[in-house]
Specification:
Elements lengths: L32 H12 L4 H10 L12 H10 L16 H10 L5 H27 L1
The structure holds iron/sulfur cluster and zinc ion.
Length: 139
């Protein structure tokens, strides 16, 4: 395994880069167990899940499923492995669907670039669903 901080390219091999998977499922509500399960299933087949988990620990990532683990599970892993507490870098992912989700969590008003990213994301998601449904009907 390469050091994720030195080899940022691991993200290129991530299973969640698959265009048919929306980023939203990796940021489920805490009690949305079906979505959490779906995200974990994808992570389980991901070739860079170790790098992903390490990066989440290094960055003190407080939200989302990383390496197949929820924030609560990562905290258990952190304590068990005596890893230091890290603070997330204060970079707000504006202009992304994750940024929009973070606005919602922070209860801040989403900025325009985040709203745009979210809208595009939703539209693509709906189109994918519609295409899949049409394919189901056709078969
Ligand atoms: S482990 Fe999961 S969240 Fe991390 S890169 Fe792989 S698929 Fe994405
Ligand atoms: Zn924003």
């Amino acid at each position: 395994m390469t050091d994720p901080l030195e080899d940022e390219n691991w993200r290129d091999r991530a299973s969640c880069r698959d265009e048919t998977i929306g980023p939203e499922i990796f940021y489920p509500d805490k009690d949305d167990h079906p979505t959490i399960r779906r995200a974990k299933l994808i992570c389980r087949t991901c070739p860079v899940s170790t790098e992903c988990l390490t990066a989440a620990h290094e960055n003190g990532e407080p939200f989302g499923i990383w390496g197949g683990y929820t924030p609560e599970e990562r905290e258990i892993i952190r304590v068990a492995n005596k890893l230091p507490v890290r603070r997330p870098p204060d970079i707000f992912p504006h202009g992304t669907a994750a940024g929009y989700a973070r606005h919602r969590r922070d209860k801040s008003t989403p900025c325009r670039s985040c709203v745009t990213a979210h809208t595009v994301d939703r539209r693509e998601w709906k189109q994918r669903n519609a295409t899949e449904k049409a394919a189901d009907h056709a078969s």
